[in-house]
């Protein structure tokens, strides 16, 4: 008689395991081969704001070191920055910027146009900025005053590119 209880226990446990398996399959589904590719469903990653890029671009532009940031700038923005640096040099002016920090970096918009991903970010930062002439006299700004700067920058990236960098394509102050 003791053997009959073991068989009943095994059958009962098998029925419970089968019931649990069928419930999980009903809830989780089964692989049918027609699953949608996650990368196709969400063709772009959620943009991540890298604030160190903002600081690098601001300080390199101020120092006139555009070659250091050329890979981070779109052609139009690079040309505009290059022209501003040349204008400064032609007038014998130098820009001095001390980057204090970023108060906020907020994504205002992000969209996809064909294979190009674009994100618009509003930066609020604190900077000490002034421009000096050839006699080292301040002609613009204040070397002692921290000013709050509001910038809206638009970045772009080709979703097919293996390059992880976003490129600055537009700036608004």
| Structural domain tally | 2
The total beta strand count reads: 5
Task: Classify the secondary structure makeup into a structural class.
Answer: alpha+beta
The Rg value, from CA coordinates, equals 29 Å
Can you tell me the CATH class of the largest domain?
A: Alpha Beta
Helix-strand sequence: HHHHEEEEE
> Averaged pLDDT, please?
83
Description:
The protein is of the alpha+beta class and 173 residues long. It folds into two domains: 2-39; 43-172, Nuclear Transport Factor 2, Chain: A. It is 35% helix and 34% strand. The protein is built from four helices and five strands; from the N terminus they run ααααβββββ. The longest helix has 27 residues, at 2-28. It is elongated, with a radius of gyration of 29 Å. The N and C termini lie far apart (89 Å).
